[in-house]
Amino acid sequence: MLQIDYSKIPGKIWMNGNFIDTKNAKIHVLSHSLHFASAVFEGIRIYNSKPFLIDKHLKRFEKSARILDYRIPFKLEKIKKICEKIIKINKLSDGYLRPIAWRGTESMAPVNLDSKIGVAIAGWKWPVYYSTDAKKNGISLCLSKWKRPPAFTAPGESKCSGLYQICTLAKHEADRKGFDDAIMLDIESNITETTSSNIFFIRDNTIYTPKINNFLNGITRQTIIKLIKKNNFLFKEKKINKNELNKFESAFITGTACEVTPINKINLKKLNTKNTLVLKLIDQFDILKKKNV
Ligand code: PMP
Questions:
Q1: What domains can you pick out in the chain, each with its CATH number?
Q2: According to a count of CB atoms within 10 Å of the terminal CB, is the N or C end of the chain lower?
Q3: Measured between alpha carbons, how far is residue 66 from residues 48, 70, 71, 192 in Å?
Q4: Span 99-138, pLDDT tens digits
């Protein structure tokens, strides 16, 4: 992937009440979140200079913080307005917004009940996540050796920085093996998600997706499930064990970054990237993006 120095991206970042130049948007090295991975964040696409599904993302932002035992110290309406301002100031038409909240410098121990919560919102031009032909030709996935932790060991419904250590390691593993991304299993070898998306499978015109079990119930996943239901496609949410993977004909992933992207292989198993149900969902998702209401 192209390496970018994000401390030098053009434009402004809103940080704790002020719009400042990107190069000055700094936090102290003794911030709790740097040591104990207590930040929460969101990723929001901008289409046509408007944020996509922003209310849902900001609600999840608030929920992610609540799960980590703190509150975002700004009203969501205000954060929404700031997001819209960042789009204007940074002149973004197709772009990405990254709100983040973190615990401050009041404690260098895990306990930090009364910490000050910092909030920042950055926005930049949309980069390509996978290759430019990923939507047409699909991407490849391997099964990672890294497992998603069970609910009693980690706050899996929070989009919190701590949980992304697993994603980074799994994605590195995939890159080194020559795959585009990795599927993570749970400790019982059921499919969960990839490092940045949810996954769906198809067999005999039925669409399957793993039932949420302490992994992110993506906003794109929820949008696609609505479309599947609207189309009256056959659909099941269920536990999917890795042993069942051989039975599927097609698969696709959903997420803010990848939108809806077909899978061309999982490990050695080749998959059909031209399944008509997937192509229909890609088209219908594109219409939603264009409407962007
Ligand atoms: N799982 C993980 C681990 C992710 O990082 C993301 C991206 N936020 C998703 C799933 C998909 O979520 P969404 O559709 O809300 O982007």
A1: 6-125 (3.30.470.10), 134-291 (3.20.10.10)
A2: C
A3: 31, 5, 6, 23
A4: 999 999 999 999 999 899 999 999 999 878 898 899 999 9
